[in-house]
């Protein structure tokens, strides 16, 4: 009886621990790769490509935008609503309402 109770307690503790583990939380994104893009005017955009198929953009004004991956014929494309990040061969463009807001070249 004592062994069964200990086993049940161990299973319950493991279940609780797995709920608390960051690895099991879907809202926890780990950056797999970060790119820094620089415009011709010297503005900088940081693109953190996350392992949950999103990109976190840090725009030149310091604001951030998180976009999910989208279908692309070539390059990496992320889009939501009226916003889009498209990176292809070291060139990145962030657009809002189909108008480029940032265009830059990959620096690192």
What does this structure look like?
This protein is α+β, with helices and mostly antiparallel strands and 108 residues long. It has one domain (27-106): Lipocalin. It contains one helix and eight strands; from the N terminus they run αββββββββ. An eight-stranded antiparallel β-sheet has the order 4-3-2-1-8-7-6-5, with no helix packed on it. The radius of gyration is 20 Å and the shape is globular. Mean pLDDT is 80; it is low at 3-26.
Entry summary:
The chain has 108 residues and is an alpha+beta fold. The protein is built from 1 helix and 8 strands. The radius of gyration is 20 Å and the shape is globular.
Quick tags:
single chain; 108 residues; alpha+beta; Lipocalin; eight-stranded antiparallel β-sheet
Question: Topology of this structure?
Answer:
Layout: H1 2-20, E1 31-38, E2 44-50, E3 54-58, E4 64-68, E5 76-80, E6 83-88, E7 91-96, E8 99-106
Antiparallel strand pairs: 1-2, 1-8, 2-3, 3-4, 5-6, 6-7, 7-8
Q: Output the strand order for the largest sheet.
A: 4-3-2-1-8-7-6-5
Order of helices and strands: HEEEEEEEE
Distance between the termini: 61 Å
The appropriate CATH architecture is Beta Barrel
Low-confidence stretches: 3-26
Alpha-carbon Rg, integer: 20 Å
Number of strands: 8
| Shape estimate | globular
Mean pLDDT: 80
The CATH topology, please? Lipocalin
Oligomer type:
single chain
For the biggest sheet, the summary is: 8 strands, antiparallel
């Amino acid at each position: 009886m004592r062994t069964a109770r200990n086993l049940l307690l161990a299973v319950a503790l493991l279940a609780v621990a797995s709920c608390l583990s960051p690895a099991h939380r879907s809202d926890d994104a780990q950056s797999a790769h970060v790119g820094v893009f620089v415009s011709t005017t010297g503005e900088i955009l940081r693109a953190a490509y996350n392992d949950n198929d999103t990109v976190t953009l840090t725009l030149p004004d310091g604001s951030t935008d998180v976009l999910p991956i989208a279908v692309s014929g070539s390059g990496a494309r992320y889009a939501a609503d009226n916003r889009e990040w498209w990176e292809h061969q070291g060139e990145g463009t962030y657009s809002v309402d189909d108008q480029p807001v940032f265009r830059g070249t990959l620096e690192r």
